User: Fold these one by one.
Assistant:
Number 1:
Amino acid sequence: MFDAKKFIEEAVKEIREQVGEETAIIALSGGVDSSVAATLAHRALGKHLVAVFVNHGFMRKGEEEEIVEIFKNKLGMNLRVVHAQERFFKALEGVRDPEEKRKIIGRIFIEVFEEEAAKVGAKYLVQGTIAPDWIESSGGIKSHHNVAGLPSGMVLELVEPLRDLYKDEVRIVARELGLPESISERMPFPGPGLAVRVIGEVTPEKVEIVREANAIVEEEIKKAKLKPWQAFAALLEGKTVGVKGDIRDYGYTIAVRVVESVDAMTATAMQVPWEVLKRIQKRITREIPGVTRVLYDITDKPPATIEYE
Ligand code: XMP
């Protein structure tokens, strides 16, 4: 049986021993993994931990405000927020290939982050890498940027307190640390964020559409008291014909994906009640101009992956 109290005690002690009086830095995304890693490191190092929230422009609705409220205002963490939206959008102009998108986002993310690390004189890098991250990365399925994208010249030494944990254990630790439910029960969200939920070229317009659609999906799934592994929206390529009001329209298609899983290695499309799906469809097409069609993805993993890119 996993003992969260003991784990926390030991992790805090180990971080303190490894980092000593130096400064450590962490990229805090607000996901349960980086939040737990940051909270552990904050307990161990206090102000010697600098948490950096990079807003790359592909975050979920309200995410930045929520992170600031929880980690800076409530927990008193030394949090720096970097607005790098333009830098990311610019670098992604004209790029359509999923792996290239991921690599570009990973590269710029590290650039932005290293600039912050240099500013604060950090020697250590705390990461919320959990067991499935490095298992999948070494299997070469997808380049999860928190592992594979690290440049060889990285001068920061890694601190990975969650390396041996699985997601359910990380959530137990989050609850034990007293983090709010919005963090401890937060669904996984890819590092490149909504950029990999817009198929093909990423534009601010498309990201805004998928952000709104995603918020509706998350809201309705929560309201229906369903507890999937992940529930989200993706914006498909191209437009299809529709009718809005009395006129023929030509709009985007949103795919809704709700999956159950234990570790993301495999997943099952959830049997979401029809009325919940219809509510999601109605809200998306009513509230988001530009979307004329909503599809529900019934594919398991394998053969599909959870994310679209
Ligand atoms: P796939 O799409 O490979 O996703 O079935 C498995 C799990 O990993 C998440 N995911 C990512 N997480 N960086 C991350 O930190 C990424 O680039 C990334 N890609 C996928 C995905 O949301 C799912 O939970």
Note: The pocket of xanthosine-5'-monophosphate is lined by residues 102, 142, 144-146, 188, 190-192, 230, 264, 301, 305-307 (CB under 6 Å).
Number 2:
Amino acid sequence: MTNNNIYFIANWKMYGDLSSLNSIKKVISLKKQKKFKKAKIVYCPPNIIVNEFIKYTKYTNISVGSQDCYFIDGTGPYTGNISAYQLKKLGVNYVIAGHSEKRLDGDTDKLINKKVLNILSNNLHVILCIGESLKDKKNKKTLSVIRKQLSTCLKEVKKSHKIIIAYEPIWSIGSGIIPSPKELDKTIKYIKQFLSKKFKNNKSKILYGGSVNQKNINILKNTKGINGFLIGGASQTSNKFIDIIKKTIN
Ligand code: PEP
């Protein structure tokens, strides 16, 4: 874990409604404490409540993100979709791209690359998710899968300061299983090397995501070279989310 800002990005997936706003009150109070100054908290709720989250967190130092955007930017006849441009106008600061649950819907690395470029051209932070499947892991293909995802998804990207890479092994998401410290160190080191080679003055950040919870955080926080966590299930209950933040920054 680095000594700088530590990211705690909450991916609420397809959970939550207006009543969920109540549950972030405690997190807002926590963030007000000096001790948690370096905690960079970003909520990514479903788009139906993004606007309310933006209003609710306005003077709080907590940021709001979206879980995805369309691969075409601007506005147009694309029923059911939302562009990075529209999210920017709404007041969103972060957008996730390439989450494995969106890859299941058909998002390819090439399509994700379009989303990444749109997100960055709107001056938003992109949280790019990468990670191998269980089959890849068993076939010892973790690093080659990651290399391919990074090189295609970041094609034509020139600046790194708004890039956050979330390493999320697919087999870990929602399963309660996490990589061993040795496995994680090796993969994070590889991602860092890739990014340092790609970007001259590399300012990108790396997060770990996959079954982060109040128990395993004591192990995960010792991972070298990471700047925080992307948290799904455990971020939807404020007590669990707060516990993770407190145990990381103690
Ligand atoms: C995620 O959805 O990005 C995630 C990491 O989920 P979970 O923490 O529930 O494994």
Note: The mean pLDDT is 96.
